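Support request, please re-run this one:
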Amino acid sequence: MAYLIDGLVFAGDTLFMPDVGSARADFPGGSASHLYHSMRRLLALPPEISMYACHDYPPESRQPKWQTTVAEQRTHNIHVHDGIDEQSFVKMRMACDATLEVPTLILPSIQVNVRAGKLPPADENGIAYLRIPLNALTARH
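Re-run finished. Output below.
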């Protein structure tokens, strides 16, 4: 999800800094194809538009950054620069995602994120619980 507010893009978990690329698409309900189309909509904005990354996972060779432009993304984004088609992106994203570990807090995070930040409804006793299945997810290798 990204927001365009007063000529600025807040890219959320869509586009990262150009040397990092894009967000993973393997979480429940995720789709590399949908991610590609979302990113292409953002990259169709005027080139001078500033973009602010929600996260940065910088390589050791640079300090964290948070601002880029549509032009910089279209030219330098390692995953989705101009010339990368949907099929190539989806193949790359799925291959990369298959190598990533399941995040430690994925289960509680999903339960809140799918409700737009709201906690799950309370049980009959009035207490809201995050449910954690004990054997549902395992680390990938």
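The chain has two domains: 3-97, 101-141. The two ends are 29 Å apart (CA to CA).
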